[in-house]
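Let's sit down with a protein and look at its sequence and fold side by side. Please make up or recall a protein chain and show it to me in full. Label the sequence line and the structure token line clearly, so we can match residues to local backbone shapes. Go ahead whenever you are ready, and we will take it from there.
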Amino acid sequence: MQTPEAPEEASKFVRVKDGFQRLWTPHRMAYIRGERPSPKQGPGCPFCDVTERSDAEGLVVRRGESCFVVLNLFPYNPGHLLICPYRHVPRYLDLTDEETLEFTSLTKQAIRALEAAAAPMGFNLGMNQGAVAGAGVEAHLHQHVVPRWGGDMNFLPIIGQTKALPVLLEDTRQQLIEAWPGE
């Protein structure tokens, strides 16, 4: 079916009920267009901007000396975390030895906190470096920690390109803070 060129041509098109229900998520358009989703948009990197906000406003779960843990604003699953260095570096190889140690330590702590808070059955861990590798924010290294459960994928993301998340980001953040392992 073609889209009508002018409103008067709209009457040429017959609307047929297709049997699908719609889950409208207009807030996702900022992500689809590649715009920064932050309500306080300004110049700079979204990960650098997070560090200038309060933990609650920036969805920061944990701050270390050289790295921090933040909830993904567009999570694949509840509890989807990002481990980021404070320093603006594009590649894993650009981290100092000290940053690499804390980056790895925070990743392990994130997994332990997720296990305690949500009992996932597995995890996806990964870094996408460069646009061809799928990096959404190429200039600032970050590692994804995605908790997984049996049956957590269904038709909705495939057919509807929509992910239903049963937990609010603020609630997930609080659960992880409470479950974060001691130093």
